[in-house]
Each structure stands twice: as structure tokens, then as C-alpha cells.
Write a structure and sequence with these properties.
102 residues, alpha+beta, 4-stranded mixed β-sheet, 4 strands, 27% helix
Length: 102
């Protein structure tokens, strides 16, 4: 069994974010129907601007960016097998949304 470390979580989050494999990806309507959907997805997958302000635990589980003047963000959360409760390093769910949809 793999030990849960920040490095393990960060690696899993990066792999999931870059490939959309290994979890569930949810997009709000503001993202799904955005004219720049392809650019939004590409930006999430290539995002590397992690810093203390948006990544205080060094897990690469949050990012904020702007496309064509509209701010967006993504957040990765961890759930148990029933997707009901938090579970450290559990099943990943990434939500991508416009900032004004929060």
C-alpha cells in the first residue's frame, strides 16, 4: 500500500488534471456552454501556476485563470467510494467553473 504523502497526492492530482483520467470531471453550465470550452480545458490541463496563495498545502488541487477576460477556476476534492464524504486521497472529483458561479 502506498504511503499518503503530499508528494503522492500532488502527483496523483497532476496526473488526473493533465489527463482527466483517474476521477470524475464536473463542469458548470458556464463552462460547458462557454465559446472557449476547448481553451478552458487546455488551460486546466496545462496549468502550472501553483503558489502559496492558491496551493498552500502543495497538493496542486486548485487553480485560477482568465480566458478572454472571464475568470475560471478548478478544484479537486477527495471522496469516499460512495462519493458522499471526504476521504483523504480518496476518489478525485474536479470541478471546473466560472468564478461568478461559485
Amino acid at each position: 500500500m502506498e504511503t499518503i504523502t503530499k508528494e503522492t497526492i500532488r502527483r496523483k492530482n497532476d496526473t488526473f488534471r493533465k489527463t482527466f483520467v483517474g476521477g470524475k470531471v464536473l463542469m458548470t453550465q458556464g463552462v460547458q456552454y462557454a465559446p472557449s470550452l476547448t481553451k478552458i480545458i487546455s488551460t486546466v490541463k496545462s496549468f502550472e501556476d501553483f503558489n502559496e496563495g492558491n496551493d498552500p498545502y502543495a497538493e496542486h488541487d486548485f487553480g485560477k485563470f482568465v480566458i478572454d477576460g472571464t475568470p475560471y477556476f478548478f478544484k479537486i476534492d477527495y471522496y469516499d467510494d460512495k462519493y458522499e464524504y471526504f476521504k483523504e486521497d480518496g476518489n478525485r472529483v474536479m470541478t471546473i467553473m466560472r468564478s461568478d458561479e461559485y
